[in-house]
Amino acid sequence: MNNSESEAMWKLYGSQIAVRTTYNKLKISLPENVGLGKVQYKNYSESAIGFNNSFNYPMHKRDSFSHENECRALIWSADEKYKEFSDLTGIKIQIELDLLNLNVFLSPTAPDWLLDIVVDINEKYQVNAHVLKSKLLEKHKIES
Predict the structure, then answer these.
(1) 61, HSE (Cβ side, Cα atoms, 13 Å)
(2) What's the rounded Cα separation, in Å, for the pair 136 and 111?
């Protein structure tokens, strides 16, 4: 949901790898029982979350996290098979990976050997992803 990389996000989450697709591609790749929505960021001292819709609570965060520009996928089901996962932070689901048109970015501080490993993993598992090392910290071009 961001059009450009964020140095703050690389630093905050300490990750060496980030995966990007579009909201619409993610939406069409998910099973029908999975809802997808954009997180709304609020100043809770000025406004409250309405509980008239069960999706409201998990789709809101404090406005101090707005730099994340996050979307969330939620499963809404009364199916008994999901009850055993109620204490976990996530549930594994099948998605149509080829529909995502993935871009895999390596951190601007990632070692060069990591690029080779990610490319090898993509080939081994036949993932059709474009793998790039971040150019975030490259020097600016200066016109003369």
Answers:
(1) 13
(2) 15
- Phi-psi region at 101: left, alpha or beta (left = phi > 0; alpha = psi -120 to 50): left
Burial class from Cβ neighbours inside 10 Å (0-12, 13-18, 19+) for residue 135 reads exposed
How far is CA 49 from its chain centroid? Answer: 23
What are the tens digits of pLDDT across the range 21-77?
999 999 999 988 888 999 999 998 888 787 777 778 888 899 999 888 899 998 876
Q: What is the Cα–Cα distance from 102 to 96, expressed in whole angstroms?
A: 11
137, 14, 65, 89 alpha-carbon torsion, rounded to 10°: 150
